[in-house]
Design goal:
alpha/beta, Alpha-Beta Plaits, six-stranded antiparallel beta sheet, 12 helices, Rossmann fold, Beta-Lactamase, five-stranded parallel beta sheet
């Protein structure tokens, strides 16, 4: 039995939930003007569900978010808006399952565009496991940018991963400022420009128009840059101002990037812009990833492995600090940890995940990799980074049903590796 058919021209329906007092002034009017049909009453059992849920909250309470987002994978996409200004709140909500999230101050055109993109995302065909994993890996950049990467490495990682994941011929992250006639190329994938090269915005009027309109706009072919295919320029909005643009060019004239890909690129670029802005203003970064981030990644990997009969490995790496790094110099130790984490990330594959774990320790998740592949990965890392000792646990494993089981086994494997005098790589039995 099929449900009631929706009229082709029906406006997308958005259900408003959460704390009504936390809604930005003018929210309902902005949504209505953007073409959405809004409501506050959940549909009856015989009615169609809404196209999206917009939840407004005062602040990011993890327990409250975990309860609200418990069924976020099966219900319509949920977008969370926080009334309190908090750079970390959107990342927490997304890690817990929200389709998208913003914190005050909220720019209504940006919010409406995100809602429309998440609705299109939901209506798109189901992705393959590989595509889903690539998307998850790219989103991991949000947390990695706050912890393991140096400022310019944030943008470099962004363009490198977008370039690979979307099979781009060219991807550049260009910082722009209102009124300036030149942009600063912070990162450039496949181009031969020098670091921090300047880009003459007068030669690219579509960049200026994208900054003004805050909408992605097509770019023509560019013989001067060797780009044979047209592209698109995506504005990156930060605190109600365009802080940068992404320039994306495919390898052929068709097909171009779809709306879902552009939405993903834009949200990731915004995360990179926030990390760069936080560094510029001296805002301190977290010293490590929250355990929730690693726990959630392992939960997702376990679920994926069980659903598609796949395997994966978890590696716990202990990296000895050089003797000339004073243990009582917190700044020197923090810099070394960040540099080591960044080097680990550069040496691993696109789908792999790295998280700080303890004092000089890093947890690495290697999808679709067995014990032998994980050992080879450790040996390659050892060629680049001295003083590496590792423990490995591979799934499926008879003693593993929960992420905590993986932690227990890999910690024991690391202790086994530390007790060795040769290879110094322990493997969980």
């Amino acid at each position: 039995m099929t449900g009631p058919a929706r009229e082709p021209l029906a406006r997308p329906r958005v259900l408003l939930t959460g704390d009504a007092s936390a809604r930005p002034d003018g929210l309902e009017r902005a949504l209505t003007r953007a073409g959405f049909q809004i409501g506050e009453t959940p549909p009856a059992a015989h009615e169609l569900p809404p196209d999206a849920l917009l939840t407004t909250l005062t602040a990011a309470d993890p327990d409250q978010l975990r309860h609200l987002l418990a069924d976020a994978t099966v219900e319509p996409p949920r977008i969370v808006v926080f009334a309190r200004e908090d750079r970390d709140a959107p990342g927490v909500a997304i890690e817990l399952g929200a389709a998208d999230a913003l914190a005050s101050p909220v720019h209504f055109p940006d919010l409406c565009a995100r809602i429309a993109a998440r609705i299109r995302d939901r209506q798109a065909p189901v992705r393959t496991p590989y595509e889903a994993r690539v998307r998850d890996t790219l989103r991991g950049l949000v947390e990695e940018a706050r912890t393991l990467l140096q400022p310019d490495e944030v943008a470099q990682a962004l363009v490198r991963r977008l370039g690979r994941a979307l099979d781009l011929a060219h991807c550049a992250y260009v910082m722009v400022r209102p009124g300036e006639d030149q942009g600063r190329v912070v990162a450039d994938f496949t181009e031969a420009r020098g670091e921090h090269a300047r880009l003459d915005l007068g030669r690219y009027p579509e960049i200026g128009e994208a900054v003004r309109s805050r909408r992605p706009l097509p770019m023509p072919e560019s013989a001067s840059s060797g780009a044979a295919a047209p592209g698109v320029v995506v504005p990156v909005v930060l605190e109600d101002e365009v802080a940068a643009v992404l320039i994306l060019r495919g390898r052929t004239a068709a097909p171009g990037l779809n709306a879902t890909q552009l939405g993903l690129a834009g949200s990731l670029a915004e995360a990179a812009a926030k990390a760069l802005e936080g560094e510029r203003t001296g805002q301190p970064r977290r010293q490590r990833l929250t355990p929730l981030t690693l726990d959630r990644r392992l939960e997702e990997e376990l679920e994926r492995a069980r659903r598609y009969s796949l395997g994966f490995s978890v590696v716990l790496v202990d990296v000895e600090r050089p003797a000339d790094t004073p243990a009582d110099d917190d700044d020197a130790v923090a810099r070394y940890r960040q540099e080591t984490g960044a080097r680990l990330r550069r040496e691993l594959r696109l789908p792999d995940f790295v998280s700080t774990y303890g004092d000089g320790e890093y947890a690495i998740v290697l999808p679709e990799t067995g014990v032998d592949g994980a050992r080879r990965s450790v040996l390659r890392l050892r060629e680049r980074i001295s003083g590496v000792t590792a423990g490995i646990v591979a799934y499926p494993h008879p003693a593993v049903t929960l992420p905590d089981d993986l932690f227990t086994l890999v910690e024991a494997a690391l202790r086994r590796g530390q007790a060795q005098s040769g290879e110094r790589i322990g493997v969980a039995d």
